[in-house]
Amino acid sequence: MEFRIDSGVLTDAVAWAARVLPARSPVPVLGGLLLEASDGLLRVSGLDYEASARIEVEADTAREGRALVLGRRLLDICKVLPRGVVECAVDGARLSVTGGEARFGLSLLPVDDYPAQPGLPAFRGVVDGDAFATAVGQVAVAAGRDDSLPVLTGIRLALDGTTMTLAATDRYRYAVRTLEWKPEGEGGEGEGGGPGAELAGGAAGVDVSADVVVPARRLTEIARSLTSAGPVRLALDGGSIGFESEGTRTTTRLLDGRLPRHDKLFTLGEHAVAMTDRAPLLEAVKRVAVVAEGDSPVQLAFAGESVQLQAGYEDDVASQRLPALLEGAESLTVAFNPGYLLDALGSFDSDSVRFHLLGPGQRALITDRAGGVHQHLLMSVKPLV
Description:
Layout: E1 2-6, H1 7-18, E2 32-38, E3 41-47, E4 51-58, E5 60-63, E6 65-70, H2 71-80, E7 85-91, E8 94-99, E9 102-109, E10 123-128, H3 129-140, E11 154-160, E12 163-169, E13 173-180, E14 182-183, E15 210-215, H4 216-225, E16 231-236, E17 240-245, E18 248-253, E19 272-277, H5 278-288, E20 298-303, E21 306-313, E22 316-323, E23 325-327, E24 331-336, H6 338-346, E25 352-357, E26 363-368, E27 374-379
Antiparallel strand pairs: 1-5, 1-7, 2-3, 2-6, 3-4, 4-18, 6-9, 7-8, 8-9, 10-14, 10-16, 11-12, 11-15, 12-13, 13-27, 16-17, 17-18, 19-23, 19-25, 20-21, 20-24, 21-22, 25-26, 26-27
Helix pairs in contact: 1-2, 3-4, 5-6
């Protein structure tokens, strides 16, 4: 195998595929990246037991072939290569990488021992890469991190007609985001039926529905890589989900189980509504929270046309007043875990936010000004005394 390629293109391709490599693996070849050169293209592939990634870029292929090398070591080399054209070739039991006056040699792993890349599930439709990346980032902040409750470490992805719903919860907060997507209806009847999946598909023009849970860490990595990718094809069956854009494809396994439904939780009934500018509130929460020890709350006292923020106890206290508008009550005081509140406010991209408030110690729903496609539910805690 021998090929020539721009160092920047090679670095980006290796970094993209290396995202799925396991940090540690009892199977050495799973730490490798498979390089395949043919027909003016270089394909870089990586996988572990849960996910796979493959990217295809243009290269001047002087000699076709395949090589398996340690992925993270190759990435480290790519990061320090001089700018310009890089020459890569299999030389005996090594892959040589030459850029300018710099030359590296990487030991080859046994390519025959490398598992085959999993195929993509059946295609279900197309979603805009930028919109999808934004939506995943907005809900991922609410996903759990406790591996003893694996389903709560996931993001729910539900498809209903032309609407995609993403949701995540760690039991203390719940984020939901909807966006538009375009069902394809390819592939005949939906595959799967395994735990955590309900799929229905058919010929073109028939709605595709699904309700699955995807590991949040994996989906976040995938979504970030799809930024600026344009239209992205989504593939799905009962055990895995895949995404394909021009030159790239990636898959990851689904989690078993279901997230609790959010419909009733987000229905508050009669409640007060407070509106304020998002960016000043975010900065004020950061400011007053410096005196909050551990998870002690930040208090928001809404009254008339202002909100008073306060944190801390006894001698170590901080406060700040901001403009706000309260409707449905003369005054109302709530308090939140400052980290959760910062995550929620930071996940919005609107100029202002609305707090839909039931009262102290009860559910509070945060939305944008229009109360639209992005919603974040927090449990308020006991206000400061």
